[in-house]
Amino acid sequence: MQIGLFSETHPLEEVLVWGEPGIESLLGQLLPKSKSLFFSYYDVQEARREFRHMQELIEGEGIRFTRAKDALAKALSISEVSDAPKSLQEIEQALLQRANEYYETYRTRKIADFSNEGIHGDIDEVYAQVRAEIKQILDEDASTYGEAGAIRLNHLLSLKHELPLVNIFYGRDQSQALADRVVLSSLKWDIRKPEVDVFKQALIALGYDNGFVEVDHGTIEGGDVAVLGDTCYIGVGARTTLSAVKNLSKKIDADLEHKGIQMVAVVNKRHVEEAALYGAPTEEHMRIMHLDMFWIPLAPNLVMAYTHELDQREVIRISRNMDSFIIEELGGFREFLSEKGIEILEVDEAEQKNFATNLLNLGNKTVIMALSTNQRVIHELERRGFSVLSAELNKLVNGYGAIHCLTAPVRRNPL
Which 8-state DSSP code applies to residue 4? Predict the structure, then answer.
């Protein structure tokens, strides 16, 4: 399969996604927020419907929509998985047992989470809903992937690891297309770490295995990586570390420079220090976990950015001289963009929290916003000649991510 991504603003031709949330995300409703990494409750069935609507919207624009989950399920269905259950009844019982364990272990903490977030729900009712919907989704998976595919997929996602892979549907984080290579991530939090290997299996099944770039020092997540013009911007803060940027630079910098692209780190020093100390993410870290949560390219000379976070970031250029790194501090992010002649469409805190910057750029001045409630931003984009579509991801944003987090472009037309 062909990889080609040289700018976030080039016309989008193919996007890679995981697929809609499944039983693993149902089980996540019974985990405390500190473990699941998303809000204490959301309606998974409604989130699945939102995902399918998003797929229809993207495909309606003539863009190829490639689902990693489907490819992996097909590959698993013809593989021998010795430790997986042998029947739908057996895996259903194993999934229900896992739900029981989470409910009994975390019930008190979930009640506290509900109270802290002002959720007027009943964890006992959520538990009953999870149990009922496990069978519904398992039946849907069996219809889609066949019995063997459904069993082995759900075993891998919900039972094989210490915790279910509840965040895997945010399909940008596990890998990213960078120029003509696929970079495999190294995710920060334990619940997400296994996602990279799962995605690697799916990418191989899809034919994207022509030389993976694997980061083997520090952590880096796909939402922190974006190419605009002659620069690859990598956010460093709550999730991605400078050591990972150096490691990536060592492996791919010469290739990028040959293509006329320089690599810079966009650093929030306070978040770096806090992330190294804390055993769980803060609310602020979740809100600004990645570069795409506060900054997004719109056109070659135009970006959207959240004012406050923009002014917290400093730019560092990392280059290599033989076996050593050269670190050059280039000043504030705002000033760096200004010197490049890049205009900034600024959004405020409320708009950032409403995922205004977490949009999908289709190129040709067309974007898909996660939510139509960002009316001021939409009007400003339309005033500038953009066509703005809205995906209405009211449930899918409850994992602190939106349409940019759900999609990983793998091919854009360089014009």
Answer: B
